[in-house]
Amino acid sequence: MRVRRLAAWTALPLAVTLGLVACGSGGNGGSGESDPNAAVRIEIAEPQHLVPTNTNETSGSQVLSALFSPLVDYDEAHKPYEVAAESITSEDNTTWTVKLKDGYTFHNGEAVTADNYIDAWNYGAYAPNGQNSSYFFEKIAGYDDLQGETPKATTLSGLKKVDDHTFTVTLSQPYSEFKSILGYTAFYPLPKAAFSAPGVLAEGYEQAPIGQGPFKMKGTWQHDAKVEVERYDAFPGEQPKVAGVEFRIYQQLTAAYADVLSDNLDVIKTIPTENLSTASVDLGDRFRQSPASSLHFLAFPTFQEEFSNPDVRKAISMAIDRDEITKSIFKDSQQPARSFVSPVVAGYRDNTVGAAGEFDPTKAKELYESAGGPSKITLSYNGDGGHKDWIDATCNQLKANLGVDCVGNAEPKFADLLTKVKAKQPVGLFRMGWIMDYPSMENYLGPLFSTNGSSNYYGYSNPEFDKLLAEGVSAPSEEEAIKKYQAAEDLLAQDMPVVPLRFGQNNFGHSTKVKNVEVDLFDRVNLVKIEVVK
C-alpha cells in the first residue's frame, strides 16, 4: 500500500495527538562532522515491484522515493506543497493545470517533460498492463475506456499536453483533493528509455529504474539481497547529505536489529516486537518514535462461502481481545483500533466498528455458531515481517473463545502473500497493513474497500458504499466530503470485510554512524536529511 501502502512489517503505535509533527525530529547518533562521501544502509523487505505504477507496498516505495521526485509532498499540517511541480491549479476542481519546474532531468540525461508524465500515467491506467496502482487513475476522464481485456482506447482522454512543461488533467467529475493525491508513487514520470515501444515497458527497466530524483541506481536490483543507489549530482532540488544508500533486504527483522546493534546496519524502520521492551536500553537515544499513518487488520476472503456471512466476520472480531494483545505482545506500543481509518486524517471518529469491536467472547461464540462459522480458521501472514507472536496470540484467543481449530500460516515474504491473495488462492484470513498514500479518509476507504480498489484483495463489494465514496470525491469542500466518507465507513461496520486491530507508530532505531534520522507518516526514511558521522 505511498500503497503509502501495504506494510510488510508490524509497524508500531500511533501517536494520536495531531499536533505532533509528521516526522521524527533528528536525534544525533554522533557528534562528529558529516561525511558527504559515505553511504547509509537501510533495512527493507523484498519489494514486490519497482515500477511506480505497480508499486503499492512500503519497501518498494522507499526505494522509489530515492529514485524519483514527486509532484507534491506534504507539510506538517498534512497539506500538499509543490516539489517537482511549479504549480497545480484548477478553477472548477475538474480541469487541473500542472506546470513543471525547469531543470529536472532523468538519470540518463533526458530532460523531464509533460510527455513523461502523460506516458507513465497512460501506461499505469491501461488495464492489460496489470498495474497494481491502476486504480489511482480512475478519476481521470477516459479511464473506463482503458479497462477490460480489449479496451476501447490506449490513452486517457483527460490528459492533454500544453507545452513541454505544462499539461492539463481533466477529471470525470470534480475532486477537490486531486492535488493531494499527486504525491503518490503512481504519479511519478517515466523516461522515454523506459519504453521499448509506445505503451510497452522496456524489458529490464524494473531491474534498474531510471528516475528524476536525488539518487540514481547503482547497478541492478539484487533480489532478496539489496538495492543500491548513489547521489545524482544533477538533481535540481535539495541535495542529499550522503553519497548513496544501500537498501538491504532482510527476511527477518531480528537479524536487522542485531545488525543495527553491531553498527552493521544504519537504520531499522521497525523494531521487532520481541525487542521492544529492551530497545530503549539497547539503543539509548538511538531508539526513536514518530507518528505513523498505519492501520493493521485481518482481512476476510469474502468471496469464500464460509466467510461470506457478515455475522461470521463480526463474531471473529468480537472474539479477539485487541487490548490484551496490544499490551502483552506490543508492550502498549500500539493503539487498539476500532475504526477503519487512521486518527491522523481529518474525519476520523473513535470506535466506528461499534459492538463488533468490543471483546465479548460469550456473544461472539453464540453469533458464530448461529451463523454457521467454519470449524477451522487459518491466519496467513508474511514470515518476513515479525508477525508470528501476535498471530499466535490471536489464534489462541479464537480457539478459546469460538471453540475452533486455528492455525497460523507463514508465507516466506510479503510479496508472496500479496501474489496469493491477489490470485484468490485459499489462504484463510490474512493480515494486512495499510499506510496512507495521501492524507485523506478517501485514501483508506477507496483503495481498500471500493469494488475496484487497488488493494481490495478480499473481494468486498457494496454498491451503496461505492456510491457514497463517489459522492464524497465529487463534493465541493473537504467538510462535505467527510460527511459522505463517514457514511461510507458506517457501512463497513455493518459488513465487516476486515477486522481493524491496531493503529501503528514508527518505532525505529539507528546505528552510531548516522544522525538526523527521520521516518515519516508513510514509513519512509527521509533520505535528504540523514547524515553519516565521520
Automatic annotation (TrEMBL):
Solute-binding protein family domain: residues covered: 81-455
InterPro entries linked: Peptide/Ni-bd, SBP_5, SBP_5_dom
Full protein name: ABC transporter substrate-binding protein
Organism expressing this protein natively: Micromonospora fiedleri
Alphabetic keyword roster: Signal
Database matches in PANTHER family: ABC TRANSPORTER SUBSTRATE-BINDING PROTEIN (PTHR30290:SF83), PERIPLASMIC BINDING COMPONENT OF ABC TRANSPORTER (PTHR30290)
Highest taxon, organism lineage: Bacteria
Keyword Heme in record: no
Secretion signal, residue range per the UniProt entry: 1-22
One Pfam family, short name: SBP_bac_5
